[in-house]
Amino acid sequence: MIRMIDNTLTPISSPVAVKDQLGSYYHDKWERAHTLFPKRNFPWDVLPQKIADSLQQLARSCASSSNALPGAAIAIFASVLGSTISISPKESWEEPLIFWFADIRGSGQGKTPSTRALRKVLNDAQKLEDLAYSKPCCQDESDQALDVEPVSPRPRGYFMTDFTLEGLRKELLGSPHGGIVCIMNELSSIITLQNQYKGKGNDRESLIGLHDGDPVRVIRADGADTIEGSRVSIFGGIQPEVWKRIFGGEKGLYTVDGTVFRFLPTYEPNYFHELTSETWSPKNEAAWKSLVTSALAWGNVRVSTKDWEPLILSFDEEAQARFIDWRNDLFGYKAELPAIINGFMPNVNGHEKVGQKSA
What we know:
Elements: E1 2-5, E2 8-11, H1 15-36, H2 49-61, H3 69-81, E3 85-90, E4 93-96, E5 100-104, H4 111-132, E6 137-139, E7 145-147, E8 159-160, H5 165-172, E9 179-184, H6 189-192, H7 204-212, E10 216-220, E11 223-227, E12 231-238, H8 240-247, H9 249-256, E13 264-267, H10 282-304, E14 311-314, H11 317-332, H12 339-342, H13 345-349
Parallel strand pairs: 3-14, 5-12, 5-13, 8-9, 9-12
Antiparallel strand pairs: 1-2, 3-4, 6-7, 10-11
């Protein structure tokens, strides 16, 4: 009996040796994963300096780690652009702006206050939308107030704090933009809130379709819901034990079917972060607010024009060459890594939709 390790044929003399050697082999795979992908802090130099400074100060002001904040920021920024922009690594390959992030930390680590502060710019935008959608009152002959139909279009939704497919369809109904962000204090509800409208089956396939930007059609006993053109980004905090129980539940189904692989997780043990008098300065808060409001206004104007099309941001030759080299290097390690690590690779790299366009 032989097996292949590191491209070398290795003889195995007995079933006992198979068990022992494979056990050692898989241990080596995890060691290899730790070597290739060492734990590190977020690389802040990839962000504009003003935004990096803003997010880092916000984290300090909340006595919390800053490593997960870029995920929340990217999810919000992608949502306000929605379907107006797609990324093209090469011709005929388009990727939608959809990002799912998980902040895996223990309770009391300050996961919520900083993301709540980032979301404030969307809260303000939502208030304006809701105010524009007013129900005027008139008086009947008995001098009683009567509600009449609103005079303005249904307000656009900018964010959600819970998540069901039915609710999402209603929120995005008639919206050409399709962008919305779901920011959850407890990410586990992304799984537990599903299926509450039906007794059997599950919504895993539809959930996965949303991440890919594909049209989703959900059939219920009382009718069908179609969600098309959605660009739903998700960010949420979750405790390590809850993460393992929820996303490793159903006998590991959410790992096997790829649900967990669609999240980009950050994980940190519990650390003490000193609370000081430092606050999120008006200058740094304004930098974040200006970025989001500018992108939001640009996206809204674009979808309001006749016969609009998404703006395709294509890699230039240098960027494409670097991306292809990085992708090929990454996938070249697959035989050396545990299967659960390999499951993340296609989603980190993109959806591999070469030769076809994403929805």
